[in-house]
Specification:
The protein is an alpha+beta fold. 14% of the residues lie in helices and 33% in strands. It has four domains: 2-136, no CATH class; 173-390, Beta Barrel (Thrombin, subunit H); 395-491, Pdz3 Domain (Roll), CATH 2.30.42; 512-663, N-terminal domain of MutM-like DNA repair proteins, CATH 3.20.190.20. It contains twelve helices and 37 strands. A hairpin with a 4-residue loop joins strand 2 and strand 3. It comes from Monosiga brevicollis. This is PDZ domain-containing protein. One of its GO terms (molecular function) is serine-type endopeptidase activity.
């Protein structure tokens, strides 16, 4: 009978080679009595119920096992090391035989200053001291595998062409990547203050990526140069930033085209060609760009995860309605600054433009704009001189997956989507009717779940058949109407949105001030800083389609406090329905109704709230209100006639005086 006692300064530690775990017990000491055979075969099974998890602790176990009569010793040291964080909690291990111990370095969770455990076993017999000493020097370290490395060799005069190779990847699939065609874009931006729409915000700076294409042009993302005041471009390995001119911005497909006049910039660079191929699932791709974390070119590698359709604005967490376009999801890292950079196959062919990386609860999700969307953007510019939006026929539909709905719509022999709304100003107006079942768009048969065949066994949303259609070209459609198939032809066009999505460069937001009440149309620029401040009625109206060309949703943004508007403080941004019992069409119409009113001006807001102001008093107080809040004019210049614009000078109150005279 031999007694084994394990003692610790703070707690007990046990190591299991079979489980590859360490576990600490809160006991200060543990005594065991056990029998050992003459062959030194020690087998104990000890399971403890309490696990204490540590972080940033490296444990190195050294075992000295010796035959003979004096036995062996086990030493365990713990100290702080590099931060490696394994997932999950450690489970209670079992203590195996002494001979099965293997010295391993583990990385555990949190701080433990230093731990020393000595387990001494004693039995009859002489110890082999030399073997014990040699065994104590053996330490094994669990090493992390090294990540693949891309080796790029620049091309020099008289040298072999540059190649790119990745460790661990079979030879023959790598190719020289055109790194010299990838540029860094520096943008200075300034956008209006939509809460004080007569002011511009301060300048800001951002950077993104881009790449050179045929025609001495540069492609990047629209959001990289949005609200720009100046854009400059630097080549890979260069030290100068060249002034660029923005030729076109298409926010719907998030693409922009730049141009640089300097001949020096284009010397010795390769202008890339773009085809319409879409990579296969699980195909390797490489993302090049200039993301955060450094100033030089960065490369990340991944595979194609899926091909789908997305509203590009929703992917960027913008509260805007829009068509869905084809998009490719990859698992390569896409970070801030990668936007606009090219994505290549490993043979050097372009497959898309990086534009969004998901930073939410999911990992390894990035999106790229595929080449068919890019070629459509470039074709539109070459044909029409610009690119504005993508095809949107202006319908809303529902899926027809329910058997009862299919029987009601007499779809036993057909499949498709059920039209529930048609925009009055959209291409489908007067041709597609509410209640129609769209069974085919161009050559794409539509399924009951709203998908169309894509390639092989893959399917995508029917939105792809619409958004990929060229603007100005005829779209063919087959609908099921009253149990009969009807062939229709529509023109590919853009349905005008009720809520303005983007302002034109160089323009300011529209506004109108009367009696200290600030009125403005509901736009995406106003929604962005005030998304939680709009009332429900404004949101409901924003989901509707335009009924006439100049229609706007007019809201009261705030009240510039003055005795004339006492009691009318607003906690939310509310829609203005009527002025003097007349339905408001747009902001210009509101100004006209106020100018034409007699003694009182009556505004009817959402939820039945009313604001009534004396017109003469408001006009007399207008100069004081404008001066107090540093407002240059009572309305934006786009609401004035040409004569009024000529008479209006900043901060002189000239427009106010003329309006006051007309009121008298």
């Amino acid at each position: 009978m031999t007694t084994i006692r394990i003692t610790m300064r703070k707690c007990d530690i046990f190591y299991s080679t079979s489980e590859q775990m360490l576990m600490l017990s809160l006991s200060l000491s543990l005594s065991l009595s056990l029998s050992l055979s003459l062959s030194l075969s020690l087998s104990l099974s000890l399971s403890l119920s309490l696990c204490v998890v540590f972080a940033r602790v490296s444990v190195a176990v050294t075992v000295a096992a010796a035959g003979g009569r004096d036995g062996a010793s086990v030493f365990c040291d713990a100290c702080r090391l590099a931060p490696v964080y394994p997932k999950g909690l450690f489970q209670a291990p079992t203590l195996g035989t002494v001979a099965s111990f293997r010295p391993v370095r583990y990385h555990l969770r949190p701080s433990l200053a230093r731990l020393s455990v000595t387990a001494a076993m004693t039995r009859r017999g002489a110890a082999n001291a030399a073997a014990a000493k040699e065994s104590r020097q053996q330490r094994l370290t669990l090493k992390r595998p090294s990540a693949p490395r891309l080796v790029m060799t620049s091309k020099s005069k008289g040298a072999a062409p540059a190649t790119a190779s990745v460790d661990g990847i079979p030879q023959g699939i790598t190719h020289k990547l055109p790194v010299g065609s990838v540029v860094k874009i520096f943008t200075v931006t300034s956008k209006p203050n939509y809460l004080l729409p007569w002011q511009m915000g301060g300048p800001d700076a951002c950077s993104g990526s881009g790449f050179l294409v045929a025609g001495r042009r540069i492609i990047t993302n629209a959001h990289v140069v949005s609200n720009y005041t100046q854009v400059r471009v630097r080549k890979h390995g260069g030290q100068f930033k060249y002034l660029a001119r923005v030729l076109c911005i298409n926010h719907t497909c998030d693409l922009a085209l730049l141009e640089i006049d300097s001949d020096e910039f284009w010397e010795g660079v390769e202008q890339l060609q773009i085809n319409t191929d879409i990579p296969d699932l699980d195909e390797r791709v490489v993302v090049l760009g200039y993301p955060m974390g450094g100033d030089t070119l960065s490369l990340t590698r991944g595979v194609v995860s899926r091909v789908t359709t997305l509203n590009y604005e929703e992917v960027k967490f913008q509260p805007r309605h829009g068509p869905e376009l084809l998009a490719i999801q990859i698992d390569a890292a896409i970070n801030s600054g990668n936007s606009g950079g090219p994505v290549f196959r490993e043979n050097g062919d372009i497959v898309g433009v990086a534009f969004s990386g998901y930073a939410g609860s999911a990992d390894n999700i990035g999106y790229i704009i595929p080449t068919p969307v890019i070629t459509s953007f470039l074709t539109s510019i070459n044909t029409n001189g610009t690119s504005a939006g993508v095809c949107d026929i202006g319908i809303r539909y529902e899926l027809c997956e329910n058997p009862s709905m299919q029987r009601k719509l007499k779809m036993e022999q057909h499949s498709g989507i059920h039209v529930i709304k048609v925009a009055q100003l959209g291409p489908a107006a007067g041709k597609v009717k509410v209640g129609d079942v769209i069974t085919k768009i161009n050559d794409y048969p539509v399924a009951n779940d709203g998908t169309i065949p894509f390639r092989g066994e893959e399917r995508v949303s029917v939105q792809h058949a619409i958004s990929s259609h060229p603007l100005g070209k005829t779209m063919k459609m087959v609908v099921l109407r009253d149990s009969e198939l009807v062939n229709l032809e529509l023109e590919g066009a853009v349905t005008p949105p009720l809520v303005e999505c983007y302002r034109e460069v160089g323009t300011m937001p529209s506004y109108f001030i009367f009696g200290g009440c600030l009125f403005s149309p509901m736009t995406s620029g106003l929604i962005e800083p005030c998304i939680d401040d709009f009332d429900d009625e404004s949101w409901e109206a924003s989901r509707k389609a335009k009924t006439h060309e100049d229609e706007q949703i007019v809201v009261m943004v705030s009240v510039l406090s003055h005795p004339i508007n006492h009691g009318y403080n607003m906690s939310r941004i509310r829609r203005i329905h009527k002025c003097n019992n007349t339905v408001i069409r747009n902001l210009q119409h509101l100004k006209q109704l106020v100018d034409e009113s007699d003694k009182y001006v009556h505004f009817e807001l959402s939820i039945g709230k009313n604001i009534i102001l004396d017109k003469a008093e408001c006009l007399e107080a207008e100069r004081e209100i404008l001066k107090t809040y540093a407002v240059p004019a009572p309305c934006s210049r786009d609401l004035l006639s040409e004569k009024e614009q000529e008479a209006l000078t900043p901060r002189n109150g000239g427009a106010r005086s003329k309006r006051a005279k007309r009121a008298k």
